[in-house]
Amino acid sequence: MDIRGPVVLPARREEIELRTLDDLTLVGELALPQETEAVATLVTLHPLPTAGGFMDSHILRKAAARLPALADLAVLRFNTRGTSSPRGTSEGEFDGGGAESFDLAAAMDFVRERQLPRPWLVGWSFGTEVALKYGLDHDVEGVILLSPPLHRTTPEEIAAWAGDSRRVIVLVPEFDDYLRPDAAADRFAAVPDAVLIAVEGGKHLWVGENQTRRVLTEIVAVVNPDALPLPTEWDGPLGQE
């Protein structure tokens, strides 16, 4: 069977709740490898909820559906405050990247409590703003930024990553709606160690199986390169969302 579209591979999946410092309950899911220990953890941050972003935005959903089985990764997804998905609605209201700092902190508290290994922040669009603004406050190995618009992140917040041991990986679509590779190179020039990957043919929403596979491959190349190349076919049992 081709691994594409809505295919869900086996994993241990658990519906979770996160509690923030300002007493909100956020809903989410943790997906772990079915039979092995995770070698690293992806803490995912979804696109803009006021534009339809949520924990099931397709790249994040497919990461949770595939990468526990294909790359031995734990994948934590959750709805930030005021965001709804089939999993449920997180309490609170969207705060434009302000109080979402509490949401990320709650996720990182969960990572520590569950002793999940080697956490990386994987932000997409609005999620990259949260990762850049607040990631330095947490014990992570680095950030992987998908389609960063840099609408809410200040030059000072970007420059704060310069000289830090935590890695900054930036995937910029060739035809992004908000920030294209040349402009991204200028904006991230203040972080000399940042790795900027221009994705040919890519668009902000990473539509299509080829773009999905490219993004997941780039994530695994950073977090667990021993798992590459990612298989494109699966002949075992399937999982359930």
What do these coordinates show?
It contains six helices and ten strands, in the order E-E-E-H-E-E-E-H-E-H-E-H-E-H-E-H. The chain is an alpha/beta fold. The strands form two sheets. Strands 1-2-4-3-7-8-9-10 form an eight-stranded mixed beta sheet, with helices on both faces. Helix 1 (58-71) crosses helix 6 (209-223).
In short:
With 241 residues, the chain is α/β, with parallel strands linked by helices. The chain has six helices and ten strands; from the N terminus they run βββαβββαβαβαβαβα. The longest helix is centred in the C-terminal third of the chain and has 15 residues, at 209-223.
Which terms would index this structure?
eight-stranded mixed sheet, two-stranded antiparallel sheet, 241 residues, alpha/beta, 6 helices
Question: How would you summarize the topology of this molecule?
Answer:
Blueprint: E1 12-19, E2 25-32, E3 40-45, H1 58-71, E4 73-78, E5 84-85, E6 88-89, H2 100-113, E7 119-124, H3 126-134, E8 142-146, H4 155-159, E9 167-173, H5 181-187, E10 195-199, H6 209-223
Parallel strand pairs: 3-4, 3-7, 7-8, 8-9, 9-10
Antiparallel strand pairs: 1-2, 2-4, 5-6
Helix pairs in contact: 1-6
